Inverse folding.
């Protein structure tokens, strides 16, 4: 009588192993697809100038030109532009993380007339493409005398981000109301409840918000190209216009520069990946 049970258990174990194998195979395939552009860029960065401009496509470089990485650092003031970009991205990320958390706390825990329609209106702004607001924003900041300065990023950070507000609102809404009620009975105001009780409980969302804001500024090209001049611009804009020789673009040197360009973001995500994934997973869809 035990034989059918054992056979059924073996079939279940075999099916489970096949399912795990299929899942791991799919994950490996997806990882390969995501890594393919990085590997292609690295191989292209090792090509010579003649090989990179040739019409014949070769995946592997015939002779590895490691000097392209030195040229990527030497042709432009790479470290100065990197410091400027890190400063700008960090400032914006800290400000937008703080301001969005406060707005998200207000939407999640405060009660008032028109709260839900206002929250829906704020979410609706996320559907507006950023490119549509660049020119009107430029005109406003131009009249304020803020072009070629970093003040636009400070003001954008202080104004919060609708998507980040949504993340915080979902996280704060999922916390027990008993915490809020107990704090009120102890004489805490709402700002103290936000700062000392609720904010420490959503550290994964804080990390998620910071990483998303940092990568947005780090990878943004259009905004600094329009709002900043060539001396105080970001690294991405400087790389796009600086790797030239006699008016000819040095694509292999540009590829080498992009290897350095992605390193800060990769390092940031490497150290904060657990908090990032937890922040996305725990933000939820609570109403």
């Amino acid at each position: 009588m035990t034989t059918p049970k054992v056979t059924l258990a073996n079939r279940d174990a075999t099916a489970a192993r096949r399912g795990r194998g299929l899942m791991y195979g799919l994950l490996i395939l997806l990882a390969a697809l995501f890594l393919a552009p990085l590997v292609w860029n690295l191989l292209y960065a090792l090509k010579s100038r003649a090989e990179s401009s040739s019409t014949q496509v070769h995946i592997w470089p015939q002779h590895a030109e490691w000097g392209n990485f030195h040229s990527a650092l030497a042709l432009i003031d790479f470290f100065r532009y990197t410091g400027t970009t890190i400063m700008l991205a960090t400032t914006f990320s800290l400000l937008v993380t703080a301001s969005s958390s406060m707005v998200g706390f207000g939407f999640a825990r405060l009660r008032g007339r028109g709260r839900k329609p206002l929250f829906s209106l704020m979410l609706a702004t996320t559907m507006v493409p950023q490119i549509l607001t660049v020119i009107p924003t430029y005109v406003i900041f131009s009249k304020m005398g803020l072009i070629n300065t970093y003040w636009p990023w400070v003001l954008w950070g202080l104004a919060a981000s609708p998507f980040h507000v949504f993340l915080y609102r979902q996280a704060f809404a999922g916390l027990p109301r008993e915490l809020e009620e107990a704090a009120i009975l102890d004489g805490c105001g709402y700002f103290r409840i936000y700062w000392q009780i609720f904010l420490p409980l959503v550290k994964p969302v804080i990390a998620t918000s910071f990483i998303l804001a940092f990568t947005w500024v780090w990878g943004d090209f259009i905004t600094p190209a329009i709002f900043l001049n060539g001396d105080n611009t970001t690294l991405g804009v400087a790389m796009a216009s600086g790797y030239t020789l006699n008016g000819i673009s040095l694509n292999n040197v540009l590829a080498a520069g992009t290897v350095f360009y992605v390193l800060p973001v990769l390092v940031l995500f490497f150290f904060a990946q657990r908090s990032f994934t937890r922040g996305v997973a725990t933000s939820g869809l609570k109403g």
